[in-house]
Design a protein that fits this description.
The chain is an alpha/beta fold. The protein contains 4 helices and 5 strands, in the order H-E-E-E-H-E-H-E-H. The protein is globular, with a radius of gyration of 13 Å. 14% of the residues are buried.
């Protein structure tokens, strides 16, 4: 699986990347340096409403998972991540069910 990966530590940098390029997928943590992942998701949805979003987080609270479901996250993984499941979520999104 060949990938061209871009990364950002801050929401402002991530949004700048989205303005410059088209992406097939966004993989994000709930905590970014200058915002929460949910604030970032709202902004991403405004720019690229159909882009699949996968959360990888150390926050395993049910309230966080519920919020992720409400904003239409494709998948939610708790760290440490099972990379086989992550690859399945990326390559076969219809086969993968929300965690």
């Amino acid at each position: 699986m060949g990938c061209d990966v871009k990364s950002a530590q801050l929401m402002t940098d991530a949004l700048s990347l989205l303005d410059k390029s088209l992406f097939d997928l966004c993989l994000l943590n709930i905590s970014l340096g200058d915002s929460t992942g949910f604030e970032w998701i709202e902004k991403v949805r405004a720019i690229a409403p159909s882009i699949p979003l996968i959360i990888c987080s150390d926050d395993d609270r049910e309230s966080t998972r519920q919020q992720a479901r409400q904003v239409g996250i494709q998948a939610f993984f708790t760290k440490p991540i099972d990379f086989n499941l992550l690859i399945t979520a990326i390559t076969q999104p219809n086969k993968y069910s929300y965690v």
